[in-house]
Design brief:
This protein has 11 helices and 12 strands. A 7-stranded parallel sheet has the order 8-7-6-9-10-11-12, with helices on both faces. Strands 2-1-3-4-5 form a 5-stranded parallel sheet. The protein folds into 2 domains: 102 residues, NAD(P)-binding Rossmann-like Domain (Rossmann fold, 3-Layer(aba) Sandwich), CATH 3.40.50.720; 186 residues, Rossmann fold, CATH 3.40.50. By secondary structure, the chain is α/β, with parallel strands linked by helices. It binds D-malate. The site of D-malate (MLT) has 8 residues, from loops. D-malate binds next to loops.
């Protein structure tokens, strides 16, 4: 039998995924000197010296912007990813983000942590807290979804179920995606239309040249006063310096993002997370399984799905 394929695993990738590579045909680990394939999650491979022995790369996630895809294509090395495998996890965190902003959860939690149970004024302080952190409900508000790929569509669907109105925008929506989208999602023709009419705006676009800083000082002027911007896509889609200025001017109500950006961290109207969208047990297993299957099928049989 031929020598087993050597798979360099660059991050912690779910064991369920690695188990998809049959032990008699694959050796997978962190110390592989001459890899035939690389399995990566978030490690930035730009600038890495990717050995000439590498025949394929698998990204256990949907975005591939941590991989030099063009350089790999020029070498004939396919890059596999796992679109949709973590969409449900991201969708659920977007819901949490909207609720955190609408119900002032972050501020209210800090307020409670700062209370002294022995304080004789405790009861009065709790009453004050109830007023200070009173919020509003999602139902009846409009959510604008920019990007109607797998995640954007799940977010739109969830918002409809929560009793929200949904306005969606995607210039490149596929026919299949358009069919699967509820007719209750109103379609906008321009990003500005979404910004003007939505109280919440959630971004679900990849980071490419056309989307870099798509939310900037100019576009922010179109948003409703006190609106909430949610960025669970990529940091570069938003000009965060402009967002900070809009928050400070109280034009923008809140910014919820899945990146610990130094530009906005510490602002009381920012909820920033350490890129947790895909960090659930289920999503990690789904992504690792999908991408390991693709690597296996490519290396063993030359089958290409999703590269
Ligand atoms: C993705 O592109 O799907 C996410 O960035 C995945 C991750 O958090 O690793």
């Amino acid at each position: 039998m031929a020598e087993p394929f050597q798979v360099l695993v660059l991050n912690n990738v779910s064991a369920k995924g690695l188990a998809r590579l049959p032990a008699e045909r694959f050796v997978a680990g962190k110390d592989i000197a001459r890899p035939d394939a690389v399995l990566v999650r978030s490690a930035d491979m730009h600038g890495m010296d990717i050995p000439k022995s590498v025949l394929a790369i698998g990204r256990a996630g949907s975005g591939t912007n941590n991989i030099p895809v063009n350089a790999m294509s020029a070498r004939g090395v396919p890059v596999f990813n796992a679109p949709g495998a973590n969409a449900n996890a991201v969708k659920e965190l977007v819901l949490a983000g909207m609720l955190m902003a609408a119900r002032n959860i972050g501020g209210a939690m800090c307020f409670v942590v700062g209370l002294d149970p022995a304080d004789p004024e405790m009861e009065k302080k709790v009453e004050d807290g109830k007023k200070t952190y009173a919020g509003y409900e999602l139902a009846g508000h409009t959510l604008g979804v920019i990007g109607l790929g797998m995640i954007g569509r799940l977010v739109a669907d969830m918002a409809l179920k929560m009793g929200m109105n949904v306005l969606g925008y995607d210039p490149e929506i596929t026919v299949e995606a358009a069919w699967s989208l509820s007719s209750k999602v109103k379609k906008a023709n321009f990003v500005t239309e979404v910004l003007k009419h939505s109280h919440f705006v959630s971004l679900h676009v990849p980071l490419v040249e056309a989307t870099r800083h798509m939310i900037n000082a100019e576009s922010l002027t179109h948003m409703k006063h006190g609106a909430v911007l949610l960025n669970f896509s990529r940091e570069g889609v938003v000009d965060e310096a402009a967002v900070l200025a809009a928050l400070e001017a109280r034009k923008l109500g809140s910014y919820v993002c899945d990146f610990p950006s130094p530009k906005v961290n510490g602002n009381p109207h920012v909820v920033a997370l350490p890129h947790l969208g895909a960090s659930t047990r289920e999503a990690e297993e789904n992504c690792a399984t999908m991408v390991a299957d693709q690597l296996r099928d490519y290396l063993l049989d030359g089958n290409v799905v999703n590269a």
